[in-house]
């Protein structure tokens, strides 16, 4: 659907009673500059952006060695996982047994969804953070002081599978990709459990992953007329245990590492894995959820596809008791049910680790 001049004027007037998608906005010939409601001001600290340092490269984890390597190879990978989670909260995953054709099919279907007519997509415009299918724009339009240059589609695919009924091949591609990435996430969590000195199944069992939440979040970042003034999605960490991200070959992801924003190149042969808030809580802060953001460009449309691996909705997430010592390592976080954490997140603006900070214990 092509935006009319009145739609552009609606955004410029900052009237958010109903949203215009960013994609529709960019298709309007009246759009020659960034509407004021999308103007994002960065802090001076946010201006330090660099590429990965050759002396401190982004960690790379070989999944095949974790699940089918020799005992020595697996032990080495578990050590590498520990270092990556502790020092970066982020790593690149290679050789993870999800074929390129499956990933490309998923990317194609996500683009096909975003290319539907606006009225068709609006059928899936959920209003509540707990809705199993939600199409929307920005982050939380009713709360955001500044709108973000992003349209999204979020779908719960486990423990119950949900999917839009259009476009025609979407459901099948989503089911296959969800099934395979769920297995990858669970195997990674076994290695991470061991890297913390816990039993391999500790996180899977205590987080009740048999009924755990798996959610897909597809993000579309169309070309922006003034990208230096806009933000695709602001600095934040994710709820859940892990986030497995793939991209369409257009860069824009940045992660915060040692006080600097690091550009993460988009590659087609790896998944990008983020430590998320609930893994930080379970590890009692040993592994920190990584802050990341998405910047936009005026040249190409970027699409990212995130898979959230999370505890069951009724699980109280708290530090692993086996890691605690009242004297040297007391609990640094209070327990909170996952459902309550998500609702808290949905009722707040996306702002750094503001929700995680609410469960931290001040010492």
From TrEMBL:
Residues 33-54 are annotated as: Disordered. This is Fe2OG dioxygenase domain-containing protein. Keywords: Iron, Metal-binding, Oxidoreductase, Vitamin C. It comes from the Eukaryota. It comes from Sphenostylis stenocarpa. Residues 44-54 have a biased composition (Acidic residues). Residues 33-43 have a biased composition (Polar residues). One of its GO terms (molecular function) is L-ascorbic acid binding. Belongs to the iron/ascorbate-dependent oxidoreductase family. Residues 211-311 form the Fe2OG dioxygenase domain. Gene3D superfamilies: B-lactam Antibiotic, Isopenicillin N Synthase, Chain. Pfam families: 2OG-FeII_Oxy, DIOX_N. InterPro entries: DIOX_N (IPR026992), IPNS-like_FE2OG_OXY (IPR044861), IPNS-like_sf (IPR027443), Oxoglu/Fe-dep_dioxygenase_dom (IPR005123), Plant_2OG-oxidoreductases (IPR050295).
